[in-house]
């Protein structure tokens, strides 16, 4: 199965919105089947962006799965890609420059956009 970074972002947004104090069961993302969402949750756990993942199987098939909360790193990553405009710019650069859509590359691009926006904001405040 191919990793889908749009789905990764959607999962993190949904976990942030829905998680209260216990595991989330039946996490569903519109347009994606349960196996695809579960796989991406599993690799998000392996990447330490979410605190837990547990698949429940019967008859050699995934029946359900549960996920934990976002980790500190998960929150930091989501904060960098949350904005739809920034996410669109990141995806455009990834495609145009044929960069690999890894978490590290996406964070670097997001950091560059955030730095540029921060510099512009500071300049507007200080008049420099």
Q: What would you say this structure looks like, in words?
A:
By secondary structure, this protein is mainly alpha-helical. The protein folds into two domains: 5-71; 83-126. It is built from five helices and three strands. Strand 2 and strand 3 (61-67) form a beta hairpin.
For the report, how would you describe the main beta sheet?
3 strands, antiparallel
**Oligomer description:** single chain
**Can you count the beta strands?**
3
Gyration radius, to the nearest Å? 17 Å
Low-confidence stretches: none
Assign an overall shape: elongated
Helix/strand-derived category reads mainly alpha
Tally of domains: 2
Strand order in the largest sheet: 1-3-2
Helix-strand pattern: HEHEEHHH
Q: β content, as a range?
A: 5-15%
Q: What's the overall average pLDDT, rounded?
A: 95
Fraction of residues in helix: 55-70%
């Amino acid at each position: 199965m191919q990793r889908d970074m749009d789905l990764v972002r959607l999962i993190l947004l949904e976990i942030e919105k829905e998680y209260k104090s216990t595991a989330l069961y039946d996490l569903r993302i519109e347009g994606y089947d349960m196996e695809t969402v579960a796989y991406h949750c599993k690799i998000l756990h392996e990447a330490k962006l979410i605190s837990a993942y547990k698949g429940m199987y019967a008859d050699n098939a995934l029946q359900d799965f549960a996920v934990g909360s976002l980790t500190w790193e998960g929150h930091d990553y989501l904060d960098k890609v949350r904005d739809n405009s920034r996410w669109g710019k990141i995806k455009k650069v990834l495609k145009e420059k044929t960069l690999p859509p890894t978490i590290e590359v996406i964070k670097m691009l997001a950091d560059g956009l955030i730095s540029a926006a921060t510099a512009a904001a500071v300049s507007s405040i200080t008049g420099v």
